[in-house]
């Protein structure tokens, strides 16, 4: 079976776009081939900074002949219907159609369509130009004289050549001939821009890869990553260091080079007084380099860094390493300036006294000064939700409400809430926004804040995602909950809720953060009461507590399903009024444990049977007694079931009051045997109307008793 090789070579493609672009190319071409009637055995995409490539194996050489029948209207149908049929079938006149007969429907038109198969080369030559012209780059450009013409070729960077060969291993492959904006497909590519800029003639994928390798191009991006990581570890180890690995940076750097050459640079020891996170981000963001640390030195960094060049220099890379070192030193000089400036006094202290008094800040402390400035400058949080200063006030009030609930010191919580956003006014965070929180913690410790206050400055943003850890320090928990609940109630108050897949303010993540903090810290919190306090902070905003609670129920369901809980058990336990998320979780756990037992399974079957009979009779408007009357019992099974329901209802109710949901489930489980006996020995629909109404009332008692812990009708099984 023939194989297809396709390469689109251009100027340098941004590293962040390469992997997705190669995947898009594979999907677009293989989907097009299949739609055209071809099949293939395997397809794999490759990419470097200067090329996207596809290796498609076992492609059928020709699409199959197609014969199909298109059924048309009746021979007596109006002209309009006939013309529509002709257009659909591609016929020029009704004389080209056939007439078929049906004993019931009479005569009708049928078009016999016959389409001969097409050569794969013809299909490819038609598909690829269309794919290139419609390629979904996030950003693309036009170039050269042709760019002035409407509809001219656009690509992420100027497209320079196209390789497209097709054929079996046993024969010389052919060049699939097509042209797009003056670029004609061929069998010629080019190697490394500096080491091997000459033309290379290729036949099929295997020799294409080999010839590129000889021309200093490693085609496989994952192999480039392996080379970089292996060499970086080795060069670090040889110098008594450990590489600080960074998967995101490794992915990016592998997209910047076609021939990776790993080198080591260095900077002055004095720069190590800067926090390690700042050094790492400075070197990463500006020079795309990896940092190192002395072997066995914990989190402390060394003054050596790892860089990846794209050429093998004659001097072994000394000048490249030196040049990178110069740039790193300049960047670290800026970082050192930011770090020291943040620890000094602000020049506008006299203007900050009113804000300092509002938040009880000490203007002798650098972080307090930054918080005062954040308030003084009226930095906007959201146009409809006011300033950052106003938001800090709201978070502080809410955090103080939450402090006793989570077991935190109210004074520490108030202090932590006031300082939590202060680092937004620091120079370091201004340069590296991703360090907000982390720098707040460092600056808080430097000015002698309590460890819990410092931790809250960083941890109140957590968890940032499903894999991020949740805060456990009570002070951090109080501020984190207040921060997220203020965000959620604020955007609900101005009716800016997530819609469909759109969630620009990450409100789903904030709600899931609240869910995880409460459940993983085993915290009991009545959400509706805290919602009411939070909504009261927004003047003119509507209290949408019930709608927000429903949103939390959805997030809780997502969380519990990810933890392996059954969706039907969650639905059975949650009611629109359920506002204690930890209690919901405990109920689900207890219900799951009950249903894992034989008693639980049988009880479920019995209660469902009772509910179904009751529902059917209620639908028929059959009389159901308002209360069970023991005097009307005729069978021993009725008496036993009534006694069991009385006992189970009482014990389950008491257990629920004590919030012992396992005990509540255990109390209900004793109903299993009397329910079974009742259905085996008692006819519910007795001829005596009073007896029947009494027995239906007894079934209603079963439903009422079980509804205390869960809606059994929602449980599958």
TrEMBL record:
The DALR anticodon binding domain, residue ranges: 607-703
Keywords attached to this entry: Aminoacyl-tRNA synthetase, ATP-binding, Cytoplasm, Ligase, Nucleotide-binding, Protein biosynthesis
One protein family per Pfam: tRNA_synt_2f
Record-stated family: Belongs to the class-II aminoacyl-tRNA synthetase family.
UniProt main location, coarse: cytoplasm
EC number: 6.1.1.14
Assembly information from the UniProt record: Tetramer of two alpha and two beta subunits.
The keyword Aminoacyl-tRNA synthetase belongs to this UniProt entry's keyword annotation: yes
Reactions catalysed, as given in the entry: tRNA(Gly) + glycine + ATP = glycyl-tRNA(Gly) + AMP + diphosphate
Compartments (UniProt record): Cytoplasm
Name under which the protein is recorded: Glycine--tRNA ligase beta subunit
InterPro entries: DALR_anticod-bd (IPR008909), Gly-tRNA-synth_bsu (IPR015944), Gly-tRNA-synth_heterodimer (IPR006194)
GO CC term (a single one): cytosol
A GO BP entry: arginyl-tRNA aminoacylation
PROSITE patterns recorded: AA_TRNA_LIGASE_II_GLYAB
PANTHER family: GLYCINE--TRNA LIGASE, CHLOROPLASTIC_MITOCHONDRIAL 2, GLYCYL-TRNA SYNTHETASE
NCBIfam families: glyS
């Amino acid at each position: 079976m023939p194989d297809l090789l396709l390469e689109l070579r251009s100027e340098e493609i941004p590293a962040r776009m390469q992997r997705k672009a190669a995947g898009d190319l594979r999907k677009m071409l293989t989907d097009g081939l299949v739609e055209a009637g071809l099949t293939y055995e395997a397809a794999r995409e490759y990419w470097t900074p200067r090329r996207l490539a596809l290796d498609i194996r076992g492609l059928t050489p020709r699409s199959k002949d197609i014969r199909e029948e298109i059924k048309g209207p009746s021979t007596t149908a109006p002209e309009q219907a006939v013309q529509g049929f002709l257009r659909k079938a591609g016929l020029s006149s009704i004389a080209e159609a056939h007439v078929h007969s049906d004993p019931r429907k009479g005569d009708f038109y049928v078009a016999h369509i016959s389409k001969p198969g097409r050569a794969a080369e013809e299909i490819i030559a038609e598909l690829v130009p269309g794919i290139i012209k419609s390629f979904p780059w996030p950003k693309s450009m036009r170039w050269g004289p042709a760019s002035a013409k409407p509809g001219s070729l656009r690509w992420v960077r100027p497209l320079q050549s196209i390789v497209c060969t097709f054929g079996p291993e046993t024969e010389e492959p052919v060049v699939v001939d097509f042209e797009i904006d003056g670029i004609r497909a061929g069998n010629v590519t080019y190697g490394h821009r500096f080491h091997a800029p000459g033309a290379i003639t290729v036949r099929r994928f295997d020799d294409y890869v080999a010839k590129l390798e000889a021309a200093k191009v490693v085609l496989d991006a994952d192999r480039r990553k392996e080379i970089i990581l292996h060499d970086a570890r080795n060069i670090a180890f040889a110098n008594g260091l450990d590489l600080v690995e960074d998967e995101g940076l490794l992915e990016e750097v592998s997209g910047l080079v076609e021939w990776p050459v790993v080198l080591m640079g260095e900077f002055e020891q004095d720069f190590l007084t800067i926090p390690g996170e700042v050094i790492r981000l400075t070197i990463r963001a500006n020079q795309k380099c990896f940092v190192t640390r002395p072997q066995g030195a914990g989190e402390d960094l060394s003054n050596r860094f790892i860089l990846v060049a794209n050429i093998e220099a004659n001097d072994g890379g000394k000048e490249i390493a030196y040049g990178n070192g110069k740039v790193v030193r300049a960047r670290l000089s800026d970082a050192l300036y930011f770090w020291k400036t943040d620890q000094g006094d602000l020049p506008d202290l006299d203007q900050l006294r009113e804000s300092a008094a509002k938040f009880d800040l000490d203007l002798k402390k650098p972080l307090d000064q930054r918080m005062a400035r954040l308030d003084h400058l009226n930095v906007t949080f959201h146009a409809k939700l006011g300033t950052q200063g106003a938001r800090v006030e709201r978070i502080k009030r809410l955090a103080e409400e939450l402090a006793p609930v989570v077991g935190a010191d109210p004074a520490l919580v108030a202090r932590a809430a006031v300082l939590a956003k202060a680092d937004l006014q620091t120079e370091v965070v201004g340069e590296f926004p991703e360090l907000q929180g982390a720098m707040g913690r460092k600056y808080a410790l430097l000015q002698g804040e309590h460890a819990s206050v410092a931790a809250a400055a960083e941890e109140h943003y957590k968890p940032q995602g499903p894999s991020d850890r949740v805060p456990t320090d009570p002070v951090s928990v109080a501020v984190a909950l207040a921060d997220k609940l203020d965000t959620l109630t604020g955007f609900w108050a101005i009716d800016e809720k997530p819609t469909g897949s759109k969630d620009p303010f990450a409100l789903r993540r904030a709600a899931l953060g609240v869910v995880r903090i409460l459940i993983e810290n085993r915290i009991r919190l009545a959400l509706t009461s805290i919602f009411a306090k939070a909504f009261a902070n927004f003047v003119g905003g509507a209290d949408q507590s019930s709608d927000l609670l429903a949103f939390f129920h959805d997030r809780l369901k997502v969380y519990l399903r990810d933890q392996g809980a059954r969706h039907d058990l969650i639905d059975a336990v949650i009611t629109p009024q359920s506002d204690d998320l930890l209690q919901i979780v405990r109920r689900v756990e207890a219900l799951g444990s009950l249903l894992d037992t034989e008693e639980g399974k049988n009880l479920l079957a019995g209660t469902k049977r009772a509910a179904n009979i009751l529902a059917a009779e209620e639908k028929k408007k059959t009389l159901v007694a308002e209360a069970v009357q023991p005097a009307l019992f005729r069978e021993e099974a009725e008496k036993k079931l009534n006694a069991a329901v009385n006992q189970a209802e009482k014990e389950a109710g008491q257990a629920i009051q004590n919030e012992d949901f396992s005990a509540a489930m255990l109390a209900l489980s004793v109903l299993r045997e009397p329910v079974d006996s009742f259905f085996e020995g008692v006819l519910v629909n007795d001829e005596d109307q009073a007896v029947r109404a009494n027995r239906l009332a007894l079934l209603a008692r079963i439903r009422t008793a079980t509804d205390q812990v869960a809606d059994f009708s929602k449980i599958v099984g």
